[in-house]
């Protein structure tokens, strides 16, 4: 990790954003083999082991309030991953991430008093309609379940941001996320084992699981933690706004997924709205779980 000192904070955030989306694209290749629960179990389980080894969080001496808060954080983390991976099974990654991104965007707008942010939310809503394909796809051909799962992931992301802030106030460094990962993995892993069974132990599956855990959790959390020590919240928010575009690029490179021009326009509207809202906020957003 010594090389991060040579990179400015914005570059660290952009690397983290790309890491998350390429991790999601890799997860999309694993989902058909072991399912949603199995994929989430591998990601959370491996990430938890790595973060526990690195952070070595203090478990003893925690108050009941501490455990309630970190448990809520863990619940948001686990459910967010399950519904997002469910969306990835049904939607192109660029579409899923764009719709999911409305969660933190709406949260930031709700807590803002700027009229411009309300206009930005309306713009983002129009973008989501375009991205969903509602204007150029018949109702019968729309994957309503996939769209609903992506929206649910966005709601969970908003909850994740709120619980993350409270967890960060009570747990130092990576302690909070390490404990939350452990708690989420403890719940999801048995479900994943029931669904995927021995397939979870295949060499290729484990290798992909390790890659997903590193790209989607360990690397971005570490880089963003470093970057946020010196970066203003509004700058972080602007950089975070490129998540949908990064997802589209990852989908093209890893999954050979292309998006129709109308969906690209919708994605651009969501990114623009995110820059306005998150770039003008006082608090930084939180990376996707």
Question: Mind explaining what this structure looks like?
Answer:
With about 290 residues, the chain is mainly alpha-helical. The chain has one domain (about 10-280). The chain is about 75% helix and about 0% strand. It is built from eleven helices and no strands. Helix 3 packs across helix 6 (about 145-170). The longest helix has about 45 residues, at about 10-55. The protein starts with 8 loop residues before the first helix and ends in a 10-residue tail after the last helix.
Please report the total strand number as a whole number.
Answer: 0
**How many domains would you count in the coordinates?**
1
Helix/strand-derived class?
Answer: mainly alpha
What series of H and E elements makes up the topology? HHHHHHHHHHH
Our count of helices gives: 11
Fraction of residues in β-strands: under 5%
User: Helicity range of the residues?
Assistant: over 70%
- Measured between the Cα atoms of the first and last residue, the distance is 21 Å
Low-confidence stretches: none
Shape: globular
* Alpha-carbon Rg, integer: 18 Å
Main beta sheet: strand number and arrangement?
A: none
Mean pLDDT: 89
InterPro entries: EamA_dom, EmrE-like
Family: Belongs to the EamA transporter family.
Pfam family, one: EamA
Protein name: Membrane protein
């Amino acid at each position: 990790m010594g090389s991060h000192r040579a990179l400015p904070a914005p570059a660290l955030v952009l690397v983290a954003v790309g890491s998350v989306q390429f991790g999601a694209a890799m997860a999309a290749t694993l989902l058909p083999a072991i399912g949603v629960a199995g994929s989430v179990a591998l990601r959370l389980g491996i990430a938890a082991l790595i973060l526990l080894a690195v952070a070595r969080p203090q478990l003893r001496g925690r108050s009941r309030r501490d455990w309630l808060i970190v448990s809520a954080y863990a619940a948001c983390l686990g459910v967010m991953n399950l519904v997002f991976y469910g969306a990835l099974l049904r939607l192109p990654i660029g579409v899923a991430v764009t719709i999911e991104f409305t969660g933190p965007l709406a949260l930031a707008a709700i807590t803002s008093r700027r009229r411009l942010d309300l206009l930005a939310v309306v713009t983002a809503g129009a973008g989501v309609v375009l991205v969903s394909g509602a204007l150029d796809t018949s109702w019968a051909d729309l994957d309503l379940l996939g769209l609903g799962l992506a929206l649910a992931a966005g709601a969970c992301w908003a909850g994740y941001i709120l619980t993350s802030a409270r967890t960060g106030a009570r747990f130092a460094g990576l302690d909070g996320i390490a404990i939350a990962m452990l708690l989420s993995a403890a719940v999801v892993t048995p479900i994943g084992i029931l669904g995927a069974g021995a397939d979870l132990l295949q060499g290729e599956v484990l290798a992909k699981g390790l890659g997903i855990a590193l790209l989607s959790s360990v690397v971005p959390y570490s880089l963003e933690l470093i970057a946020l020590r010196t970066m203003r919240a509004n700058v972080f928010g602007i950089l975070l706004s490129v998540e949908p575009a990064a997802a589209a690029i990852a989908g093209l490179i890893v999954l050979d997924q292309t998006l129709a021009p109308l969906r690209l326009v919708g994605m651009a509207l969501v990114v623009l709205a995110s820059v306005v809202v998150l770039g003008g906020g006082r608090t930084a957003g939180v990376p996707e779980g």
